[in-house]
Amino acid sequence: MSIDDPINAYRARVAAGEIHPDPGQEHVVDRLQSLHSALRERQETVPVLQRLSRILGSDRQGSDRPKGLYIYGPPGRGKSMLMDLFFESASVENRRRVHVHPFMQEIHARLHQWRQEGPVSRNQDPLSRLAEEIAEASPLLCFDEFQVEAVADAMIVRRLFEAVLDLGVTIVATSNTALDDLYAGGLQRERFLPFIDLLKQRMDVVQLGGETDYRRDRLKSVGVYHAPLGPESAAALDNVFERLTDGAIGEPEIISVQGRVIAVPRQARGVARFCFADLCEQPLGPADYWSIACQYQTVILSDIPQLSARERNAAKRFATLIETLYEQRTKLVCSAAALPDQLYVEGDGSAIFTRVASRLEEMQSEDYLSEPHRPSTGRVAA
Question: How many CB atoms lie within 10 A of CB 208?
Fold first, then answer.
């Protein structure tokens, strides 16, 4: 095995002291290593399979595709980190790693686009057409924070994933939710249950437990509210990004929301970094903040100023941002000019800004840091 194997990459990080030895993680890495090896072996036979498919008049290769993995357990145990090790070393060239929230946004956008273009072929419904495009583009899909909440998403996910799996795509997913509890309590759940049975057939289910919440402990060790502004607080946020992303450099990203785009200056491994001006001095609204809160487990926000009556619009946006992050249990690490109760003491809305200050205080608590992220796939108004 080379360092490009997930198990050796994991052992190298343990040896370097970047992560602590964890029996639960080691078990999951073993399962990911088996899938890694199976995919690599299959890569050598793909040309033969493609020729046979053409001879037989079928492109369906699902029967020989290695089973995927559904990794579930409490937050902060390292599920996403382990999946990243697997993803980065996988031999499948056109693989894709995506958070389930933007993936579902893409699906809804494509379906809306096709409806606007008019009826599709009578011989193919839109979801079948979309499944073929997904399978052709990415024979390996890795989903972070997989869950289903909205009834419309439940029905789309069921039909789309059935088709994608039939087309031979291998799926690896992480989730805070046990497979049997997906879409629990949802409308028409009885129509969703066959999909859970299908996932059990096409994916191996492995639990990652353990008592240690590594994300919470990291956040506690570095601190989440840094005031006042200055070189010390700036350095603290740099350290937080490095610690939470395991040293990733990070890259910019674009989020599409209802035809608008939000520029994310820097993001990696579920952590996004912004400055106050990026989010609160731009014409953003609830839907924009909701998309950010769903897509990222942690938001790092720098340079929150003390606000006056002149900045009442920025103050209102900031209040909406904080409330949205709070509702989704997105973790917030920030640098600010003052403590929460001194950020906005005069101007329109300053009287009710005490609620924002209270939220900021609560978001520093151990209870909040221990709560799972809630990347809802529902819809909010613009």
Answer: 19
